[in-house]
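Q: I'm writing up a methods section and want to include an example of the input and output format. Could you take the sequence below and give the corresponding predicted structure tokens, formatted cleanly so I can copy it straight into the document?
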Amino acid sequence: MSVQPYSSTPTRSRTNRATVITLVVIAVILGVLAAALLHKVASRRHGAAATSQASASDSATAAPEPVPAPPVVDQQTLELIHSETHRDPADGQAKGKVDAPVVMVIYSDFACPYCTQFAQKVEPELDKLVKQGTLRVEWRDLAQISETSPLAAQAGRAAAKQGKFWEFHDAVYAAADPQGHPTYTEDSLVAFAKKAGVPDLKKFRADMTAAETVKAVSESTNHVHSIGIRGTPFMIVGETHISATRTADYATAVVESQAAKAKGGRGELREPRAPRHRRRRTDHDAEKNNEGARPAHARPSHPRAHAPTRHDGGPGEAILPPPVPSIV
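A: Here is the clean output for your methods example:
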């Protein structure tokens, strides 16, 4: 009987199969790990790109920090600004403490869309400064936008006589289209007065159409034109001014910078300047002071020395020739 030599072929075959299976499993695991790693890297890149894009978008759309309006340094203009600040305790078209460190004089028109935007978006923020005692607001009629602008201004004065100007102001502007030029009638203005809580509507209507009220509005508009202001809204703020509508942040920054200036750097408010009433300077005054002024007939005409045209939302324009000073 012959004995067959021992063969290791089956054992090797099983070993090779196990090795192959192990390698396949390892390859699969490595593939899964690689896929997961690639996905993670891609996610990070996508996130970084999104963050970068968002940052760029934020930078592009972010509003710049408000820069307060520079103070007026010209002495004539500064004196004119002071003369426009009344601080009259009996002024029915003013709000805020008479001795507030900053006075904002608003030249406005109830038919001006930019005035509407200012009243709806900016004034509510400024009211916070009024309540804090930092700001006093004084209204001036510049009724020029539409044929019924003077009537609306007259209605404002009639409401002021019953202590309801600002309530009337708020009711009118709340109903106005910030993109349009509203027109008014006596009846519509009486309706606004009723909404504002004016107690005596019969007296309101009579005051609104009274000859003295018509004259007062006309004189106010003519006076504002005489100092070079043609655009609405226009604001004197302390010892500087803002033309056209600005953001609430900008207007607030200007008021706060003027308030800080009023403190004189000592932490205490300086005494508010008393209102100054200026008489218009004439050629006779100049000749008397030997300033060499030319007579009126020899002075060249000023291209803007004519009746003002409708102008709302832009900077004021000087409309009088020298030597009469203008704010703008």
